[in-house]
Amino acid sequence: MVLQLQKRTMALAGVVMTAYLIFHMLSNLSFFSQNIFTQFYDIYNGGPIRWLVLLLMIAVIAIHVKIAVKIRKVNAKARTIDYAQHDKFKIPAPLVTVSIIFLLSFIVIHIVQTLLFDTSQLYSEVTQLFQSEIMVLFYLAGLFVLTMHLQHSIANVLQTLGKTSVIYHGLVWSGVLALTGGFALIPLYIYFVMP
Ligand code: HEM
Question: How many other C-beta atoms are found inside a 10 Å radius of the C-beta of residue 165?
């Protein structure tokens, strides 16, 4: 019962994060027009909104991770013998752990980097960040792991709701790829296209 409630809280935190990610990706796409990008972030950084959003995100990430760790511990205790048969596409458990730790580190590093930005020069700060190959690769790797994580977790939630058809899977893949692909356009554009 308690676990059920926690799973729902975790999914709710996931919904809040996904809503933020859609908003964040769309506002980042304004990068293609320096004017719109600068105007948007001037307003966003002008009042308390940015700090409230940041606090909300830190809170929901912390709740999501705390419950995930707890559920993993309960599951590990309940299943001491591995399944005899797995999905065709099974990623080894240690790799899942490493990828989740990488995703969390990516988010923390990204937040720290943006906190060090001069917000009155955000356009050139972002442009400068993606002059570096290492940073482009780091962000693309973070977005790849985020894609896998979102696809897997949304498919799981849909399975719980009994929605397992190919159409739903296709919709999840398209939505997730549109989201992470939208993010990836910025570093790729800066590194490969911008003069
Ligand atoms: C290439 C991809 C991305 C770019 C170019 C980017 C850019 C930015 C920028 C410029 C800010 C600072 C905004 C400000 O000064 O107000 C920011 C903040 C933030 N980003 Fe990203 N971001 C990217 C991907 C992501 C991803 C994938 C996540 C989460 C998984 C994320 C989470 C956050 C959070 C939590 C903040 C702080 C709250 C906020 O200012 O909205 N970002 N990002």
Answer: 10
Answer for the pair 127, 190: CB distance below 8 angstroms, yes or no.
Answer: yes
pLDDT tens by residue, 94-124: 888 999 999 999 999 999 999 999 999 999 9
For the chain, helix, strand, coil in percent to 5 are 85, 0, 15
Asked whether residue 98 is assigned to any structural domain, the reply reads: yes
> Does some domain include residue 85?
no
Ligand 1 within 6 A of CB of 141: no
Q: Extract the tokens encoding 56.
A: 């909300």
Domain that holds residue 64: 2-80+92-193
pTM here is 0.92
Report which protein residue has its CA nearest ligand 1's atom 36.
111
Question: Residue 164 has which token pair?
Answer: 């397992």
